[in-house]
Amino acid sequence: MLALSAGVFEARAGGCEDAWYQRNAIYKQQGYCFRTPRAIRAFGNAGCTYDAVEDVPLSARQRAQVAELKAYEQSYGCPQ
């Protein structure tokens, strides 16, 4: 069984909104330029440097966290 990170446990307790926020906070921290109005309102685009999510330089740990959060969002039918 896969051990979930503390951030994902928090998302499970807080629901879809928390999972979405945590996932996008990782991208923001690494310089992603958001496209959706929701993400721009939440995080802004000041100082962003990466237009494509595939180009964002994430560590192995961050990639694992993002994957876990996405899996949570899919399994609970969270809006994208």
UniProtKB/TrEMBL annotation:
Domain YARHG as annotated: residue spans: 1-74
Any Pfam family the entry gives: YARHG
Domain of life where this protein originates: Bacteria
Family matches, as InterPro entries: YARHG_dom
Entry-linked SMART domains: YARHG
Name assigned to this protein: YARHG domain-containing protein
Natural source organism: Methylobacterium gnaphalii
